[in-house]
Amino acid sequence: MKLIKEFMTFTNLKGQMKSLLLFIFVFSFLYCSAYTILDRMIYYIPYAFAFYLILYIFVILFGYIHMIVIHQFLKRKRGNEVTDIKSCRGTMMLVQSCFFLIMSIGSLLSYFFMINSSLSFLQYPLTIILVLLVMLYIPWQLFAVFEVLDGNKNPICILKSALLKIKKHYQSVFYSFLFIALIGIVYRGILDAVFDVPMQFIPASAVMDVMLKSNPFLMMFEFFGNIMDSLNLVFLVVISFVYGIIMSIVLCFYYMFMICVYDEDISI
Predict the structure, then answer these.
(1) Closest C-alpha to 172, from 91, 76, 268, 105
(2) Which residue, 153, 162, 145, is CA-closest to 87?
(3) What share of the chain has pLDDT > 90, as a percent?
(4) What share of the chain in percent tops pLDDT 70?
């Protein structure tokens, strides 16, 4: 408890927790509302190109909004020593475009190798790469946002620099992400064991899901959208709402911890 208080004081989280949580809540609910509408509409799109184009626009738009949220955390931790966010708009869109290309191409290649028997042997090394991308995406994207907010302009250099940061502080990055992942696994395990909502991991879809569905309240919105079909979903909505609140609080600490790692304040 003392360590947590010291961390909150050092990062200026103390006294700012409610306002930062509010930013996460507003972003999460905005994202989930938009994604729910998109998810209902997108399966009526007959062309694959249009499907991915709409997903791309969605990812770019909310990648920028996510940067605005992270900007608030950087301002609290560093004071006002942060690049003006308006000057980062174009760079963030280019960086998020790179992420979308990497993840979507990886997913499409995996499905292609699945249905092409002559190239199926390539599925095994690609699966390893996809699993690594699933594990890396959240810290990689977060460090990339920090690079953008520090005024770096070249998207390739930003991605490379973010990866080098992960390599340098791999223990801090791994253990903090593992804590986040375990909370998600426990939540999905409860859904599976108690409510028979299966927990699946398919690398070809997971690599897109980690980019599109890594939101603490998204499952709550999905259950709520189908609540008229079964009243049993009320319990799932309540549990998912509690999970969303817990994960949002954890994310406040996670973002600040990662800023400290990025700023070389913490090294494990």
Answers:
(1) 268
(2) 153
(3) 58
(4) 96
> Amino acid identity of 96?
Q
pLDDT-based confidence at 82, cuts 50/70/90? low
In total, the chain counts a number of residues equal to: 268
Residue type at position 84: D
In which element (H, E) is residue 57 found?
helix 48-78
Instruction: Report DSSP state, residue 47.
Output: -
| Most confident region among 11-20, 153-162, 186-195 by mean pLDDT | 153-162
Please give the Cα distance from 255 to 139 (Å, whole number).
10
Distance CA 199, CA 217 (A): 17
What token pair was written down for 260?
């400290």
Between the CA of residue 87 and those of 57, 84, 153, 239, what are the distances in Å?
20, 6, 10, 40
The pLDDT value recorded for residue 4 is: 78
The pLDDT, as a whole number, for residue 198 is: 80
d(CA 106, CA 204): 7
First to last CA, the chain: 19
Distance between CA atoms of 223 and 99, rounded to whole angstroms?
28
Distance CA 119, CA 137 (A): 26
How many Cβ atoms sit within 10 Å of the Cβ of residue 236?
A: 22
Phi, psi of 206, rounded to the nearest 5 degrees? -60, -35
Decide if pLDDT at 5 tops 70.
Answer: yes
Q: Which amino acid is at 253?
A: F
